[in-house]
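Input (structure):
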C-alpha cells in the first residue's frame, strides 16, 4: 500500500479528521489510516484475511457499503478492472470526500495530477 501513502507523505495531502476510510486493492502496511476507521475492499482472500486479522472491516467481494470520508484505490493492472474499482469506490464516497488513486511505478499507468 506504499503507493497509497505516497501522496500523504510526499505532498502533505490532508487526511480526513473523521469518518470511514475505504482501502481498495490494498495490501496491509503502515499509513495514515487505522483499523478502527478502515474498510478493506480486497478480493484476494489471503490479503483480505490479513486485514481482518489486523482489525479492519473487510468489504464483500462485489462492492463496499458507504458512505466513506475517503477512498484510497491502488489500481489493478487490467484497464477494465481499474475502471470498475474506481467507479465503485467513487460511488461509495461521501459528498466532498477524498478520492486518491495510485499505482506502482511498474504497473504501466500514465501519471496524471489533478488539483
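Output (sequence):
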Amino acid at each position: 500500500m506504499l503507493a497509497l501513502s505516497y501522496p500523504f507523505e510526499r505532498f502533505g495531502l490532508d487526511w480526513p479528521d473523521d469518518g470511514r476510510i475505504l482501502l481498495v486493492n490494498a495490501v496491509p502496511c503502515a499509513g495514515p489510516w487505522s483499523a478502527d476507521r478502515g474498510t478493506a475492499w480486497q478480493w484476494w482472500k489471503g490479503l483480505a484475511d490479513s486485514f481482518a486479522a489486523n482489525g479492519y472491516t473487510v468489504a464483500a467481494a462485489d462492492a463496499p457499503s458507504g458512505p466513506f470520508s475517503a477512498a484510497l484505490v491502488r489500481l489493478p493492472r487490467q484497464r477494465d478492472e481499474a475502471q470498475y474499482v474506481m467507479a465503485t469506490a467513487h460511488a461509495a464516497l461521501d459528498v466532498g470526500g477524498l478520492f486518491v488513486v495510485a499505482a506502482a511505478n511498474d504497473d504501466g499507468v500514465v501519471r496524471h495530477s489533478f488539483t
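Notes: The two ends are 22 Å apart (CA to CA). The chain is about 30% helix and 25% strand.
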